[in-house]
């Protein structure tokens, strides 16, 4: 019952912003995830390939699985046949690998480019300069089995709301400036994946179209 109530109150907040909920299910067993499914949710996100693949096999087939965590190139092949959206593309090398696996599976794999906006160096992603360089390099347009749908970012883990707001505003500014530019044919700026349990309401003010929320639905994770 609690999960259902948590979901409803989050959906109520997202609704006026036309923002989608990606339910982050990492560490939770299939029985618990099923509760979120029964409440009507279909977009689920995991941050580890093995866990994603295991859960996919134990849960309903119409779930759209999102890869939200750091992705190693040698693991792309395990999720390429079914993944709905990869949020965490942080290099052109990885993008090329996703394209290659997309080709093998005869599908176009949707991706977001992760932008490094946090203070912490532990977080992955392109800097603004690297992003522009990648887009101008002409490589992306040669990768016919990927589609870039937008950007993803993670703010610094801090209680300082102003800092979080500044970081989300930064990625929103990059998102908007790219939207106004001529992009490769297989790239559009449609989705901005920012906001987690602790900061999604701030992200909504910075143009988030997708929030990735786990603990606000399922409670704190115990690893
Ligand atoms: C775990 C995780 C989330 C969700 O975190 P919560 O604070 O539980 O909402 C969002 N994005 C990524 C990349 C994550 O790894």
Count helical runs. 9
Task: Give the N-to-C terminal Cα separation.
Answer: 23 Å
Shape estimate: globular
* % residues in beta strands: 15-25%
Strand arrangement, major sheet: 7-6-5-4-3-2-1-8
- Give the overall pLDDT as a whole number: 96
Element order: H for helix, E for strand: HEHEHEHEHEHEHEHEH
The Cα radius of gyration reads 17 Å
Main sheet, how many strands, which sense, barrel?
A: 8 strands, parallel
List keywords for this structure.
223 residues, alpha/beta, 8 strands, globular, binds pyridoxal-5'-phosphate
Topology (SSEs and partners):
Layout: H1 2-14, E1 20-24, H2 30-38, E2 43-46, H3 49-58, E3 64-67, H4 76-79, E4 85-89, H5 92-104, E5 109-115, H6 128-136, E6 146-153, H7 161-179, E7 187-193, H8 200-205, E8 210-213, H9 215-218
The protein binds pyridoxal-5'-phosphate.
Gist of the model:
With 223 residues, the protein is an alpha/beta fold. The chain has helices spanning 2-14, 30-38, 49-58, 76-79, 92-104, 128-136, 161-179, 200-205, 215-218; strands spanning 20-24, 43-46, 64-67, 85-89, 109-115, 146-153, 187-193, 210-213.
